[in-house]
Amino acid sequence: MKKVTLTILFLALVASVSAQTIFGKWENKDEDTGKVDSVIEVYEKDGKAYAKIVEILNEDRKDAVCDQCKGKNKNQPILGMNILNGLEKDGDEWSGGKILDPKNGKVYKCYIQLVENDKLKIRGYIGFSLIGRTAYWYRKK
User: Cα separation of 86 and 88, whole Å?
Assistant: First the structure.
């Protein structure tokens, strides 16, 4: 019985520690409807954080392209597009990179921070972080 109890406690500890990371799949909710509209995967490459859109839930938008984007993203499919690039860990947040809003094609400085195990704060801004917009992503279950 002790082995079973210890095994359960160990698995619970591993699950709670692994959940305390920005990496993984996150659900983005539409600001107007509050419904999940896409799934974004945050991943690590060369010690930096990146994110790409891995699922679009609106059937009418699955083949959408970023027609307002500039440069290499112009008219590219939004599904699979990297929207978060080059953030570096700085204390309890990741900063120093950029985020792309595929709805308007604009690129912003940003930082992200895990505010709860299943809630990620994304702050996009121009110039200073006081002038910007905050969104929250929720860990995909």
Answer: 6
